[in-house]
User: What shape does this take?
Amino acid sequence: MENNVKKWFRRFYSSTGIAILSVWLVVSIVLAAPGAVTDFVGMPTATTINLMWTPATSSNTTVIRYSTTTYPATVADGTSAYNDTGSYVEVDGLTAGTNYYFSAWGYDGSDYGTVANLMVTTDSEVSANNTMPFPAPTLPANIDADPDTSAWDISPIDDILSYFSDPTSAHGGLGMPTNNFIMFLAGIFVVGISLTSYIKWRSFFSSWFIALILCSFCAYLGVMQWLVVPFLFVFGVGVWSVQQATQ
Assistant: This one.
């Protein structure tokens, strides 16, 4: 070596004594292509379709194209519906009752992901007030005429009344006037309710008062003579007076 010049050498040895001159590590990173658009759905009206979706993984934007004949195969086919970073768009200016074929891709700036397809049919034409058109109904000519009651059948009530009131009926009626029979039924009803209240409360006054109210109601409906009401009232007052005098 030259005088006054120092040269330094550094050597590395493995445990086996073999010199290691250099080690190079090469790392290659491959970015994944965008996935497919998911949850791709559409809600139509007569002239619009609202599209919603979940953007593809590893994508920056979503590209949507549509056609009325077939699904667009590439981003250059059909008509552009959307090319942005969101997840919703309203496609308007459409024709009612028409099939629309949508194709959607995720895009990461260099590659497109797997296509997602969706077919949506717009609603049928609607009227100005946004309701479905209905044909005008055809009304019968006698719609305002009084109903024909000749064929009405109220059996078995009619059969029961005819049994008591009509002696010429098929049952051989008893000939009792219809009004009398109805009053008879009303009387049974009043007596039944009054006896029930007396059994429950053991009070003559309570059962008499209930009978008076029911008789008044039946007389108001016309199924019982009003004469029954004052008679029942006088009868009740008389019985009550006797009870008070004997106590």
